[in-house]
Amino acid sequence: MIREALEKKLVTAIAELISAGSLPETARTVRIEVDAPKNPDHGDLMTNFAMVGSKTLGMNPRAVAEILAGELGSDTEVFASVEIAGPGFLNFRLNPAWVAGFVASVLERGVSYSHLTPDQVEKINVEFVSVNPNGPITIGSGRGAAYGSALCNVLEAAGHEVHREYYINDGVNSEQMRLFAESVKALLNGQAVPDNGYKGDYVQEVANGLEHLKGAELATIQKASQDAMIEAQRTALEHFRVNFATWFSEQSLHDAGEVARVIGELESKHVADESPFRTKIETAKGGVIKSVTKEDQAVTNTDDEDASGEGEQATLWLRSTKFGDDQDRVLRRRDGRLTYIASDVAYHKDKFNRPAGGTKLITVLGPDHHGYIGRLTAVVAAMFIDQATPVDDPTPLTEHEEILFGNVEERNRCRGAQAWAKDHLTVQIFQIVRFMKDGKPAPMRKRDGNIYALIDLIKEIGEEMRPNGTEEEKLQAGSDVARFFYLMRNHDTAMDFDLELATKQSDENPVFYVQYAHARICSVIRKGAESGLAASTAHLGLLDHAKETTLILKIAELRDEIAQTASDYAVNRLANYALELARSYHSFYDTCRVNQPENPELSSARLALCEATRTALHSVLGLLGVSAPQEM
Fold first, then answer.
1. In sequence order, what DSSP letters do the residues of 120-183 get, joined into one string?
2. pLDDT, greater one: 265 or 117
3. pTM score over 0.70
C-alpha cells in the first residue's frame, strides 16, 4: 500500500521533471523500486531508482538523486525529509501524519489484496496431498496439505481463479491397491495379512467396517476398502481445514477410455512408439549433458520393472527424453497393462478443464518426488506439442541431439513444447519434517510399526492445548498449531517440528504469540467501548509516535507480501509476517496507552489503529488457515 503510493509519487515527480527539462524523456522507461523500511522506528524508506536509472539517463547517479531529492523534498505532506545516501540512493523519512492516513484505508476497505490487471489473472488448478487410498493422511503429508491449502488461499487473494484438486490413485490395475484389498480380505476371514501386505490398526478398522463383505470377491472388497479409506482421509483433512473442489478418480479416466485415447494421440504425434530401445541421458553438474545412450529392450526388460510382464505386445515408450526427461518412460507394458505415467498424461490434459479454460497447473509433491519434475514436464510437453511455438534455432544438431532428434525441425519443435510446459506446469516439492521433543528426535511411529497419522497429531496437540475444551475446540487448537508450525519454514527446506514448543501456552510458542495479539486487540477494543471510547479516523494525525508509525508500515506491507508470495509460492513468508505484525503490535501496546478517557481524541485514533491491526492479523491468519480467537 505505502510502497505502491510512493512509487506513484516517484512516477509523478519524474513526469514533472521531464516537463521542466530537468530529466530526459528516457526517464519514463526507468524501473521504479521502493524498498522496505530501512529503519522502521523512524519510518525511513529508500529507493534505488537513481542507481538503476543512471545508465539509461546517461547521467551521474548522484546527480540524478539530487534532482529527485529537490523535487520530492518539496512535498512536505508525504516526506519529512529526503536525503541522498552513498553514490546515489535516496532515503525518505515519511511524514507520520501521511502514514497514519493509511489506517483509514484499511478500516474502509479492509486489506486490499488483489494487485492483478485482468490480463494477469490466471485460472490455476492446484493438486496437492493426493496420497494413495490405502492408508491415512500421515504427518509427513500434513506438511503438503498445509502448504497446498495456504498457497491456494494466497493465489485467490491475489486475484487468480483457483481450483483445489485431490487425485485419487485408484486404478484397478494398481498393485498397491490389490495388496491393500488382500490385507483387508485376510482380516475379514480371520487370516494373517500377507507378508507384503498392509499392516496397522487402520487396516483392522477398515475390515471392522466391512464385516458384511466377508466372503466377497476381491474386487468388491477393493472398491469398498478404498472408499472407506478415502472417507477417512477426507474427514482428517476437513479437521485440518483443508477442502477440495474435486476428488478426481484415476480409474474414471480408464473407464471413459481417455487413457487409451490419449496414448493414441501421442503415437499420432510421433512422441510415443514401440521401437525396442530406451534412450537415457546422463547429465553433469549444471544440467550439461554428458552422454546420450540407447539401450536395446528387444531381448529383456528385467532391469525395468515398468516394462516387465509377459505377453505378445511390444512395449510402448513415451519419448520423454526429447522434452528434457532423463530417460524414456513406459506407457504400456508387454503384457498390455498400462503404467502410472499413462494415466498421468491423460490426467494432466484433463486438469486444464478445472477451472474451465485453465491456464496453469501447480502440483505439490513430497520429498521423494524430485524425479517427477522432469517427468511431468515432459508429459505436458508431449501432450501439448501442437499448441507450442517451436524455438527459432537454425544451428545444426549437436552430437547428443543427433541421437535424440531426427532433424533440426524436430528439435526446435520439442524444445518449444518443453518451454510451453514449463510455463504452464509448476511442480512444488516439500521437504521432510523431523519431529523433536526435549531437543531430541521424536519417534513418530505408533506401536507395532503403525504409521502416525495427521489426525493423531492434531488430537495430541489439541488435548495438550485445550484439556478441558470440547472435541471441536481441541481439533481447532490442534489444527491451528500444526498448520502454523508446518508453514513457518520454507516448504523447500527440511524442518524441525518441536512438539514441546507447539503445546506451550506462552510467548515462546509462535502460534500462541500471534493469536494472543489478536485476542489482546479484541480485549482493548471491548474495554474501550466500556469506557465510551470507539475507533475513529477523525484524528489519525495524532498517531505520530515511532511505535505507531512502525505498526502502520507493517500493516501496509501485507498487500506486498501477498503479491510476492503469489509470485514465488513461498507461503512461509506470511507466517513470518504474522509474527512480525504481532511483535509490532505488542511493542506498540507496551509503549502507547490506548484507552485514555481523559484524552478521547488520541484514544479514538489508537483504537482505529488497533482495529486496522486486527483486520490485518485476521486476514493473514485466515490465509494460513489458522483461527483468530477473540479471547484466550
1. G--EEEEE-----TTSPPBHHHHHHHHHHHHHHHHHHHHT-EEEEEEEE---TT-HHHHHHHHH
2. 265
3. yes
Rounded to whole angstroms, the Cα distance separating 328 from 321 reads 6
CB atoms closer than 10 angstroms to residue 298: 10
- CB distance 467 to 505 below 8 Å: no
Amino acid residing at 191? Q
d(CA 226, CA 240): 21
| One-letter amino acid for residue 114 of the chain | S
CA distance 550 to 592: 12
Backbone angles phi and psi of 592, in degrees to 5: -110, 110
What span, in angstroms and rounded, lies between the C-alpha atoms of 357 and 363?
Answer: 18
What is the grid cell recorded at 631? 479471547
- Determine the Cα–Cα distance for residues 402 and 246; give it in Å rounded to an integer: 43
CA distance 485 to 436: 12
Q: Going from the N-terminus, what domains does the chain have, and what CATH number goes with each? A: 2-94 (3.30.1360.70), 253-353+368-429 (no CATH), 433-443+456-497 (no CATH), 510-624 (1.10.730.10)
576-581 CB contacts, 8 Å cutoff, 24+ apart: 576/488, 577/620, 578/514, 578/617, 578/620, 578/621, 578/624, 579/510, 579/513, 579/514, 580/554, 581/514, 581/517, 581/554, 581/555, 581/613, 581/616, 581/617, 581/620
- Convert the pLDDT of each residue in 94-114 to its tens digit: 999 999 999 999 999 887 667
Determine phi and psi for 280, rounding to 5 degrees: -130, 145
Cell 525511513 maps to which residue?
Answer: 44
